[in-house]
Amino acid sequence: MALTRRAALFGAGAAVGVIGTRWMGASNPSLDGVAIIAPNGGETVLNDASQLSETPIFKHIIVKEPPGETLIAALRAELKEAEAADRPVNLAAARHTMGGQAIPRDGHAITFDTPMVTGEAGAETYTVQAGTRWHQVITALDPLGLSPKVMQSNADFGVASTFSVGAHGWPMPFGPMGSTVRKIQMMLADGSLLSASRSDNANLFSAAMGGYGLIGLITELEVEAVPNQLLEPTFQTMPAADFAAAFTAAADGTIPMAYGRLNIDREGFFDDAMLVTYRPIPGEIPPAQGSGFLSKASRAIFRAQPGNEWMKRRRWGIETGIGAMLAGATSRSSLMNEPVITLDDRDPTRTDILHEYFVAPDRFADFIAAAKAIIPGSYQELLNITLRWVAQDPTAMLSYAPAGPRIASVLLFSQEMTARGEADMARMTQEMIEAVLAIGGSYYLPYRPHATVEQFRRCYARSADFITLKREVDPGLRLRNALWDNYMAEA
User: Fold this and answer.
1) Average of per-residue pLDDT across 390-407
2) What does the angle CA 429 – CA 176 – CA 183 come to, to the nearest 5 degrees?
């Protein structure tokens, strides 16, 4: 049996850990598929994947009702109640963000848990309910011979959440997942329900794509699909200085999936690269699968890396050696059907923290130089870096690739859960962002809120347009989260 991508390569850059959620208050299920936790102001706390965002909320609602009048009525009721008490509202699925971007402080946290996917064999699109997870999409599309055109690198994220954070994947040569969304249905803060697309309410569509739920509560999406394929990988190792040119050549539209890696041990830090490309081959496409035994077994090596340079070198040798030799053909959908928890950290004294930076291919060498100058001098333990191609995104107001294609560098750190660790992470993050901005690049918003407000405004040039539109459609600022509170509330 062929190894999965994870088993062969010991982890993609999006392994972020399970949600850390602590409930304080009674669970009180209600009718119509809506569970309410602490409905009368009992002290309730939500956290996210960072384990560092513990935030008080007024109540947490888990909505299990499929699309229809009951769901719409439930959302309107929450908005009305929150308005009467001047409390914020946020809608989310799994809360895999890392800085409270999916948590409304002292407000109404709504979680969608209602999977629904409709599609037809040979169709170009499928319709999905907002809270559906990607593994549920794969399960529904696989018998139809279809696969998501773009999705995040892990299959347990919510589809609307992917759209709302502007997330991308590693299918080539596309932009973020939102570039494959044709239409959304969402509820504005006043309870009105509308459709938005690139031609209908286009300004709202642009703001909602990568808008972190601040424009409206998304309930349904029409998303593009592609035929599923049997794919075979090719592994190329090279000096890191040659990677950008090789990756650019692979983005010619003939290769459906590709990603890269860099060596992370301190002796050879970011000196060597590996490019993995997947090409279609003839043959019967097996049913989509998820993590197997070997994928889970790789966790031991992956988690042995902190403080162990020998293990980091050994992992690189395995990735570029026996891992590459053992990796065989598999389906497009199976490659993407990996859960976050496969390589989850179980050390209560540490947490996994992601960074992501986007630079033009011709500035990638400058990014490597900056990373070499900054990261090794920190306390942080870099576990992995994955490189992905992101096409230009001219649609989203908060686009991280507005001017051309970008190489996305996804860095996974293991951070000690101490004041020293957090302070050092903030310092290193600000230094990295400053270096990336200096070469015309950008940083990603769903992670720790360590960027300064000035860095945020320089990076996201259209943030003023976003804030203006937000205040027009939500004058009471009903839809709020930590991203708004930290970076936009005072604008």
Assistant:
1) 98
2) 135
